[in-house]
Structures are given as C-alpha cells and as structure tokens.
Amino acid sequence: MKRLLISIFLVALALVSVGCEDEKQGDSGNLKVALVVTGAITDNGWCQIGYEGLKAIEKEYGAEVVYNENTQASQYNQIIRTYAKEGYDVIIAHGMEFKDAVKEVAKEYPEVQYFISSSDRTADVTNGINISGILADGVEQGFLQGVTAGYIAQNQGSKQVAAVGGLEIPAIKTTIEGFELGVHYIDPSIEVMKSYTGSFDDINKLKEQSITFIQQGATVVMSTANAATKGGFEATKDKGGVSIGANASGLLETYKDNLAFTSNVSMVKAMTKVVGYYVAGDFKAANFISGVKEEVVTIEFSKTQPDVLKVQDKVQKIFDDIKSGKMDVTTLYQASKK
C-alpha cells in the first residue's frame, strides 16, 4: 500500500510538472521586447504606429518593453546591439533602413529574435533562423490611395495628380508605385507626377515640392513621409487642391477641408500577431505578410471634405472587392512590372 501511494504521488507530481511546463511555454510574463524607430513616437505617422504596436504587445503579452526614438543611421548597429546585450528576447527594427544593422547584430547574438517591420510587401528579409519580416502590403495601401485620387481627379475633370515621398526606400517606393497603379486603374490618361524629398522629417521641403506640383497642374497630392507627410496637407491648404494621406487618421479633423482620405497600415495588428507566434512557441523565422484581407491595411474617409464625399462609395466598393478576394492587387502590380 505504501509503494502504491508513493507511485500515485509520483504520477501526480509528473502531471503537475507537465502542466507547469505547458504554462511556462505560453507564459510571456518574462518576455522582453525592444523597438527602434527612426523618428519621433509622436509623429502621427510610421514611427508612432510602431510605438503603438509596442504598447499593444506590452498589454497583450505582459511584456517588458523599451524603445529608442529619433535613431540616427550612425546609431543603428549600436542601439540594436545594446538591446541584444541587455537580454531582450525580441528586437523590432521598425523599417527596412535597419536591415543591414540587424543582419550584422543577428550573427553576433543568434539567441535573439529580430523583426524588421515594413510597408513593403515585396521585401525579403528573413534568414530563416532569427530574422523575420513583419510586412504590410504597401502596394495595396498605395493602390487604394491612387484609386481615390483617380476618382476625385476624374470627377473634377483633372488629368494631373501627384505623389510625394520622403526617403526613396522600398516601403515608400512600392506605396507610390501602388498609388500610380490605382490612379491608372481608374483612368490611364491621368498623369502621375512623382518625387522624393529625401527626408522623413522636413515638412517644409515636402510642402515646397507639393506646391510645385500644384503649380504644374496637380489637383490631388498624396504624401507619404512620416512626420513630413503634413507638408503635403499644408500645401493643399494654402494653395488649393486635395490631399491624400498615409497613416494620417489623426489629422483628418485638423485638415478637414483639404485632407480627403487616408490609407493606413495597422502595424499594431501585424506586430502583435507575429509576436504572438513567437510567444506561442515552436517559432520559425519567416516573412509574415498582411494586407486588406488580414485587416492590416485599412482606409478612412474625411467626413467633411466635399471631393471625397462624391466618390466614397466607389472607393469603398474597391476596398470590399480586395477584402473578399474579388480583386487581386498583387496580380495587377506584377503585371504592371512586366
């Protein structure tokens, strides 16, 4: 009887141990996550989205989080390496500009998982070991901006629109390519003027370029350049015209007369989802791609801007067609590159 009781006790103890191990695998109480962004976390744009994603991860998984904002190119390696040394489990480098720095540090600290977040669906960043891509579909984002611009221009009787980006990095470039694709999907005869200012922070530079395009005949101007995006809104406010935004929901009320529409990338959802894969265990590095179907690319219309109110239903229908799978933007994009 004594031996039987001991055996029962040992079996029970083993079951408790297994339960504890299972709980430990799903427990993220000790998870440490670091974020690195190039600009301010209050930029009403890309960097703020990254920060909001970090805070969502903190709330969802009880993670210990830290971030570095306004990170200069000369600091990329140093900041990422410091977080790796300090024992962070996950380091999120928010933008393709961090790619080379992440590759270097990932070799030095292979026990850390590195995520590069970007709006460039075409990016291939994973090494299959400890570097993954959190990739939103910038082509779909730009396409929806372009469709809106095309419909507005068509309704105005205009044949010229413009797109102004910040740095000519893949995430911005593919968004502008998607914008042109969307405009021409509505009306191939509309001219799309394009330019890059070389800065994500210089609002005046983007404003000046937008004014130049307005003076050349553009009636709709899309801008995508983090904090500098506001330069496009200031230009149409001062000189006339309609603005299309990127990740600019927070500014729709501020520019209620000229900012018609914003197409957003919810990296908050994308980041939270992918870190959840890591927390769940048995994680394998990959390129994790999300778009309209995954509710990562979303749209928002101005409630007051008159030009967009006239075409809102048409834009919404195209968005719904993408979500349902009736329209495949990736196929259109690939065909346009041939």
What would you note in describing this structure?
This protein is of the alpha/beta class. It has two domains: 29-137 and 267-290, Rossmann fold (3-Layer(aba) Sandwich); 139-264 and 297-336, Rossmann fold (3-Layer(aba) Sandwich). It has twelve helices and twelve strands. The strands form two sheets. The protein has a six-stranded parallel β-sheet with strand order 2-1-3-4-5-11, sandwiched between helices. A six-stranded mixed β-sheet has the order 7-6-8-9-10-12, with helices on both faces. The model is unreliable at 4-28 (pLDDT under 50).
Task: Produce the secondary structure layout.
Blueprint: H1 2-26, E1 32-36, H2 46-61, E2 64-68, H3 76-85, E3 90-94, H4 99-108, E4 113-118, E5 131-136, H5 138-156, E6 160-165, H6 170-186, E7 191-196, H7 203-215, E8 220-224, H8 230-239, E9 242-246, E10 259-265, H9 267-280, E11 287-290, E12 297-301, H10 306-309, H11 312-324, H12 329-336
Parallel strand pairs: 1-2, 1-3, 3-4, 4-5, 5-11, 6-7, 6-8, 8-9, 9-10
Antiparallel strand pairs: 10-12
Helix pairs in contact: 2-9, 3-4, 5-6, 5-11, 7-8
Keywords:
alpha/beta, Rossmann fold, 2 domains, globular
